[in-house]
Amino acid sequence: MRTLYLDCQMGAAGDMLTAALLELLPDKEAFFSQMNRLGLPGVCLRAERMEKCGIGGTHVTVTIDGCEEDEAAHHHEHEHEHHHEHEHEHVHEYEHEHHHEHGHHHSGMADITGLIAQLPLPEKAREDALSVYRLLAEAESTVHGVPMDEIHFHEVGTLDAVTDITAVCLLMYLLSPEQVVVSPIHVGTGQIRCAHGILPVPAPATALLLKGVPIYGGRIQGELCTPTGAALLKYFADSFGSMPVMETAAVGYGMGKKDFEAANCVRAFWGRTGGEEEAVTELRCNVDDMTPEDIGFAMERLWEAGVLEAYTLPAAMKKGRPGVLICVLCREAQREEILRLLFCHTSTLGVRENLCRRYTLGRSVQTVATPVGPVRRKVSDGRGIQKQKWEYEDLARLAREQGCSLADIRKKLDSIS
Fold it and tell me: Is the dihedral of CA 372, 374, 378, 381 positive or negative?
């Protein structure tokens, strides 16, 4: 399985993710040519080699009409104009104040949608870019307490941020990972100053975007993860956690502009994993007043909802009553729906939750031509292990057709590798 692991020990910003993914791409010139022909007014994307703490990597810069703009991602304006009195470097921190008017664009979601919709991008990359902006707009809507269609992006809506998000979405399309795993995200600590006042790190929009994501503060002062970086990671990540067991083929270093005591970069590991590792939710409840038929009906509804596992265990309840423990494994995104089904179809008044990790082998199905006809074979591999098993439904069909036992069919297939 093609796997991308993003190591965010120094947070993430749009330009850092662009640079890290770019280093994994074999044909970098074709990517730059495509990006610079998109028709974004006056935009030029370029890369340069940069060194942090003795490590070489790539730094990406966006210029508009020859001038480099700021990301300033977490100070979006809404409803009316504000005067901006800060510089937010495209990567991380606020360093000093200054007044500048050129290059600041006030755009609503409709403006951003119209801009991205007309770009000559692969459809998947365009849809991803729009979805990332929707995440940003939803976060800003909640933070500012205004409807999403009234949100006006300030620096996050400028062309440099549009370029960053579009670039990451195009790179993800070109790489096409089958699995994206992101490390716990270092968000930094302290405070940042903006025209609205002094805000804590992580900024409100970033904190909201990273809800449900493992993050930590550390001791580095400053904003390490921008809202744009948070939205991109939240959108593309299949799971968050430690690096899976993988055979790496390439490592990319996307450098930030600022210097810290630690190397200021996002690392992108590209390789193959033989199986999957994901965070899953375990939901449990005890019942002692349901009939077997009612429990069976509830289990059917859970399986229909697409849970990963659902099973029952005998349990001894209070006062010695026999009962049943209902256990369900599901993905985090399914949790609310599965909770609703448990309360709807069982008599329980409470459900317990455990967060755990699930490890699986990579799985595929092959159709094999055999002396008794085509038979599907399930193949599982990973971590140096390979398993094979004939599909039961095909064996059963052949046994019925030939009037023999399942064991007889298996014997006929034993000689096939």
Answer: positive
Q: With 0-12 CB in 10 A as exposed, 13-18 as middle and 19+ as buried, what is 143?
A: buried
Domain hosting 327: range is 276-359
81 and 50 assigned to the same domain: yes
CA distance 156 to 289: 55
SS (H, E, C) 306-323: CCCEEEEEEEECHHHCEE
Domain match, 122 and 238 both = yes
pLDDT tens digits for 271-325?
Answer: 988 766 678 999 999 999 999 999 999 999 999 999 999 999 999 998 889 999 9
Question: Own/partner pairs for 132-136, CB < 8 Å, 24+ apart?
Answer: 132/165, 132/169, 132/231, 132/232, 132/235, 133/109, 133/165, 133/231, 134/109, 135/209, 135/231, 135/234, 135/235, 136/76, 136/205, 136/209, 136/227, 136/228, 136/231
Q: Does one domain contain both 263 and 283?
A: no
pLDDT, tens digit, 9 for 90 and up, residues 12-32: 999 999 999 999 998 888 898
- Examine the domain organization and report whether 377 and 246 are in the same domain: no
Looking at the fold, whether 208 and 308 belong to one and the same domain comes out as: no
Q: What are phi and psi of 18, to 5 degrees?
A: -60, -50
* Cα separation, 119 vs 35, whole angstroms: 10
The C-alpha atoms of residue 390 and residue 328 are separated, in whole angstroms, by 27
